[in-house]
């Protein structure tokens, strides 16, 4: 059905379900319409931001009817930061949504597998402060060094000094690193094709040992000669490992191929169940150790 819709046009929309990225899905004159920030059952006045032959993308102008499952997000920059999608949906409903994603995938791609085999999503007792690692790009803004996450679909960096989903120790160390780097006037690189300097601050905590690993992602290795910087970082609480990673490429990839150990331990130690893991700066590890332990436990019992 050919529906004439123009960018900027406004209309009321009832949301029927959530999309795989947490966006609300409704239908305007039978054409599928995606709206971030609206929940199933809600009615909103929306405005078209993208009109394509097969779909519409719109933004919320006003919520006219609210879902009982809507909650106030804990994060103060939730509405602009691209890091989270569903803080406005209560946790029990989030778990149901995740189960539904799996069921929908089976229905679409594996019709021979009955959806009744999908068990309820196993949640956390406290679904906050679980992320054991952050990777924050950095920029200079006036006399300040900002670090955080990009606004969705943009190059606008959102300064993040608190994050309810991150382990508070990683955020605390990142904030202390800002001050050290600014006081020592460390050069910051915004465009690696034209500049040299610091690009990312990466911090990881091993929750059981409480050891913290700091990795500074730079275009070169010059910071390894800055002894004052090294000493101040290694004096921070729980910091046991410091490395520099070299990434000269203009890419969305955070870490480059070369990592230089600078001070402290080369690896920090984490525990999942009865197993110990030595984590190097460029090693993969589950971001949510508590849920990873539950997941592996479920696999073992099958």
Give structural attributes.
302 residues; alpha+beta; 7-stranded mixed beta sheet; 5-stranded mixed β-barrel; 4 helices; 19% helix; globular
Structure description:
The protein has 302 residues and is an alpha+beta fold. It contains 4 helices and 14 strands. The strands form 3 sheets. A 7-stranded mixed β-sheet has the order 8-7-6-9-10-11-12, covered by helices on one side. Strands 1-2-3-5-4 form a 5-stranded mixed beta barrel. Strands 13-14 form a two-stranded antiparallel sheet. The longest helix is centred in the N-terminal third of the chain and has 19 residues, at 91-109. The N and C termini lie far apart (48 Å).
Q: Which consecutive residue ranges, at least 5 long each, have pLDDT under 50?
A: none
Assembly annotation: single chain
Q: What percentage of residues falls in helices of 4 or more residues?
A: 10-25%
Number of helices: 4
Biggest sheet descriptor = 7 strands, mixed
Percent in strands: 25-35%
Roughly how many Å is the radius of gyration?
Answer: 22 Å
* Beta-strand segment tally: 14
Shape: globular
Order of helices and strands: EEEEEHEEEHEEHEEEEH
In whole angstroms, the N-to-C terminal distance is 48 Å
Widest sheet: strand order? 8-7-6-9-10-11-12
């Amino acid at each position: 059905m050919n529906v004439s819709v123009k960018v900027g046009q406004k209309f009321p929309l009832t949301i029927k379900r959530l999309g795989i990225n947490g966006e609300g899905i409704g239908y305007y004159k039978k054409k599928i319409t995606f709206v971030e920030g609206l929940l199933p059952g809600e009615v909103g006045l929306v405005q078209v931001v993208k009109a394509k032959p097969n779909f519409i993308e719109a933004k919320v102008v006003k919520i006219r009817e609210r879902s009982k499952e809507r909650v106030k997000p804990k994060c103060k920059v939730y509405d602009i930061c691209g890091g989270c999608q569903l803080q406005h949906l209560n946790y029990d409903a989030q778990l149901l949504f995740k189960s539904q994603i799996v069921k929908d995938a089976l229905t679409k791609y594996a019709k021979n597998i009955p959806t009744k085999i999908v068990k309820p999503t196993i949640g956390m007792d406290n679904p906050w402060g679980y992320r054991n690692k952050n990777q924050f790009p950095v920029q200079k803004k006036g006399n300040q060094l900002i670090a955080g996450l990009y606004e969705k679909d943009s190059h606008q960096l959102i300064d993040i000094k608190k994050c309810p989903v991150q382990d508070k120790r990683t955020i605390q160390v990142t904030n202390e690193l800002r001050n050290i780097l600014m006081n020592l006037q460390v050069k910051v690189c915004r465009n690696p094709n034209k500049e040299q300097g610091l690009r990312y601050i990466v911090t990881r905590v091993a929750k059981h040992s409480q050891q913290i690993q700091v990795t500074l992602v730079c275009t070169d290795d010059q910071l390894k000669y800055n002894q004052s910087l090294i000493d101040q970082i290694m004096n921070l609480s729980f910091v046991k490992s410091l490395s520099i990673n070299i990434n000269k490429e203009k890419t969305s990839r955070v870490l480059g191929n070369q990592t230089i150990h600078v001070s402290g331990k080369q690896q920090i130690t984490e525990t999942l169940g009865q197993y110990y893991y030595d984590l190097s700066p460029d090693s993969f590890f589950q971001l949510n150790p508590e849920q990873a332990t539950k997941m592996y436990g479920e696999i073992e019992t099958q």
